[in-house]
Amino acid sequence: MTERTTGPRPTLESVAARAGVSRATASRVVNGGTGVRGALADKVRQAVEELGYIPNHAARTLVTRRTGAIAVIIGEPGFRVFSDPFFERQVRGINRELTAHDAQLVLLWAEGPGDHDRIARYLGGGHVDGALAFSLHTDGALTSAIRGARVPAVFGGRPDGPGVAVGDAPHVDCDNRGGAREAVRHLVAIGRRRIAHIAGPQDQTSALDRLAGYGDVLADPGAALVSQGDFTAESGARAMADLLARRPDVDAVFAANDLMAAGALRVLRERGLTVPGDVAVVGFDDMPSVADATDPPLTTVRQDIEGMGRLMVRLLMQILKGEGEHGATGGVPASVVTPTTLVRRASA
Q1: Cα distance between residue 51 and residue 204, in whole Å
Q2: Which residues contact residue 219 at a Cβ distance below 8 angstroms, ignoring those fewer than 6 apart?
Q3: For residues 41 and 38, what is the distance between their CA atoms, to the nearest angstrom?
Q4: 299 vs 78, higher pLDDT
Q5: What is the CA radius of gyration of the chain?
């Protein structure tokens, strides 16, 4: 319980006086510094609690050169950010881990190339301690802008593009190619022979890797069995209609994400085709709000989206603590690739 209910706001000096220490000692404890004996640090913390002292953020920033804020940058327009549950899950994981580190999330998104300079100026202006960025595109423009701001950064997904060296860009990704291989092998194992792929946007490494995994299993699938989407349900529906027009004998579809798989299922149902009887369908992501709600429930490749967000924060915190150039000492990798698993439901 704190003593303060009314009256002047307690100061760092009053905390020091209550604890019987110098102002400098109280400041080190309050600002997370080291070099204060345990007993003295406990007295300072007790005084903070008793007085209801709230540190002055601006003063703390001057002392620690830290803002306590982390920018989270999403390389998509706002309508995608708020309509795709992938982003909600990733941001939720990031926010939960930032909260555990007593850090504040500052959300930014890049509607297009015109936003890159603005984001770089904001990052370089000392407003945040570091940046987390995901849904990047292979033109490399946003990645280069973030790195050019010279703030510690960790990326969600493998960054790629002109002037982007992967070794200089710590990232967290899932095994997109391996997960795609497992999905297609499952379709082959249940007897499907004309397996199509609804690909994601080809300017994102996750979509490229999933297309490559599909091709690893089907050595010569043929262009007629691949149709292009953009990770939205609407694009999945268009791609499924396109595939049926070109190859009406298709008996399985691997979609590069759950939303496109849901769009494909809708078209198959409208055409009077049964799933999985006529066409088996597999997605990628395992987002419960999508996979459990489709008819039939969707077989899909699970990636730990929320866990990947948490890992991004942990890598960034290691960098901020100075644990190696890329946050990699003592066997901690600069980048992390998490495993995927196939979750079988009724669609395949």
Answers
A1: 52
A2: none
A3: 5
A4: 299
A5: 25
Could you give the CA distance from residue 106 to residue 81 in angstroms, rounded to a whole number? 15
Q: Report the C-alpha gap between 58 and 183 in whole angstroms.
A: 52
Q: Interhelix angle for 85-100 vs 305-320, to 10°? A: 40
3-state class of 200 per DSSP? coil
Q: What is the mean pLDDT of residues 23-34?
A: 76
Query: What is the rounded distance in angstroms from the CA atom of residue 245 to the CA atom of residue 227?
Result: 11
A 10 A CB-CB count for 341 gives: 13
Q: Cα 337–338–339 angle (5° rounding)?
A: 125
Residue 150: closest CA among 342, 309, 319: 319
Nearest to 348 by CA among 289, 287, 284, 304: 284
C-beta of residue 11 within 8 angstroms of C-beta of residue 51 = no
Distance separating alpha carbons of residues 108 and 119, to the nearest angstrom: 8
Distance from C-alpha of 271 to C-alpha of 223, rounded to nearest angstrom: 23
Rounded Cα–Cα distance for residues 197 and 82 (Å): 26
**What tens digit of pLDDT does each residue of 128-185 get?**
999 999 988 888 888 888 988 889 999 999 887 666 665 667 899 999 999 999 999 9
C-alpha–C-alpha distance, residues 342 and 282, integer Å: 9
Per the listing, tokens 């005084």 go with 47
